[in-house]
């Protein structure tokens, strides 16, 4: 809920400001790149549990609309498809209060795909004839389009002087996980020329505001865990269409 309120405030400011301005320049372009994601939140490890969090490797791609407002300051609206998720390795030495003969191991994989709508403020801090450096910050709303959860684990049970294994396999499409996700964004961009075209190399950190109720395994006392999305993106963008009003500097 707080994330939705924050997103609404940013949207109201940017739309209201645009309504009061006569735009002198508009840039419409494409962007795409690599997205490294994980989940964060309450990972307090109960007695008998050890959790190792890994990264989810994915991508981001989409369209952007950049509206320069005054010198060195612009609004940037985006429409992206982005992947998020994580990989968790869970080692369990106790189950139902009893120590296991051999620790159980669970490998959990989360994949989430979103249509994301970032709204950013962009400020150019340094510039020369060939290069310029900018920072940006804002908020985003994301609509979940697909998901996948996979668990591959094994529990060991003692039999005489040895043990037998009990494999655990689970899979779902995460249909019950939050449909919307709200997040904060900040990062930086380097504008440059290459092959007689303008390009932007950007870095972005996105941190989720809302908790996602992600499934764990059915043998656990609590079958879901509340975590948030988090990702780091490295992308390249270039304008496809550039309008500049006659007489504008």
Write the layout of secondary structure elements.
Blueprint: H1 2-19, E1 25-41, E2 49-54, E3 56-70, E4 73-95, E5 98-127, E6 132-159, E7 162-172, E8 180-194, E9 197-208, E10 212-215, E11 224-244
Antiparallel strand pairs: 1-3, 1-11, 2-4, 3-4, 4-5, 5-6, 6-7, 6-8, 8-9, 9-11, 10-11
Description:
- It is a single chain.
- The protein is 7% helix and 73% strand.
- With 249 residues, the protein is mainly beta.
- The chain has a single domain (2-244), classed as Beta Barrel (Porin).
- It has an 8-stranded antiparallel β-barrel.
- The longest helix has 18 residues, at 2-19.
- It is elongated and about 80 Å long.
- The two termini are 42 Å apart.
- The model has no long low-confidence stretch (mean pLDDT 83).
Compact overview of the structure:
This protein has 249 residues and is mostly beta strands. Helix content is 7%, strand content 73%.
CATH architecture descriptor name: Beta Barrel
Tally of helical segments: 1
* CATH class category: Mainly Beta
Q: What is the radius of gyration? A: 23 Å
Query: What is the makeup of the main sheet?
Result: 8 strands, antiparallel, barrel
Percent in helix? under 10%
The CATH topology, please? Porin
Apparent shape: elongated
- Unreliable residue stretches: none
The residue-averaged pLDDT reads: 83
| Widest β-sheet, arrangement of strands | 1-3-4-5-6-8-9-11
Oligomer: single chain
Distance between the termini: 42 Å
Count of domain modules: 1
Strand content: over 45%
What are the secondary-structure elements, in order, as H or E? HEEEEEEEEEEE
Q: What structural category characterises the helix and strand content?
A: mainly beta
How many E strands?
11
